[in-house]
Write a structure and sequence with these properties.
The chain is mostly helical. It has 4 helices and no strands. It has one domain: Helix Hairpins (Orthogonal Bundle), CATH 1.10.287. The model has no long low-confidence stretch (mean pLDDT 82).
Length: 117
């Protein structure tokens, strides 16, 4: 009875993650949703294995967990590289702008009429 309730909770969490994976507004939301779905799957399989008192699926649990972890790491590295590329593009576009001041110009603007503050 308790195992059925726990598996039902994991199924509900997996469906919520699946919904977020399909409708997520950003790639980061989708990556987290995939992780939620995988953790829910691992949890449901673990509860089922405990309920049956069988260690048959424990290797499967480890493989799913490791694949999910590696996928999350790879996707986060991809997102980080993409964000770095966007930030570098923004700094290059402002490099030739006249609004960017050198430190010498900034100090010169703060000093007025010979009074140093």
């Amino acid at each position: 009875m308790i195992a059925a309730i726990a598996i039902g909770g994991f199924v509900f969490a997996g469906l919520c993650g699946l919904y977020r994976m399909l409708r997520g507004p950003s790639l980061a939301d989708r990556i987290i949703a995939v992780e939620v779905v995988l953790v829910s799957l691992v949890g449901a399989i673990a509860v089922d294995a405990a309920n049956r008192k069988s260690a048959t699926f424990l290797v499967t649990l480890i493989v799913i967990a490791l694949v999910g972890l590696a996928g999350t790491f790879a996707a986060s590295r991809f997102l980080e590289r993409d964000v770095d590329r966007i930030n570098n593009k923004d700094t290059r576009s402002h490099a030739g702008s006249s609004t960017v001041k050198s430190p010498e110009q900034d100090v010169g603007d703060r000093v007025s009429d010979g009074d140093e503050s």
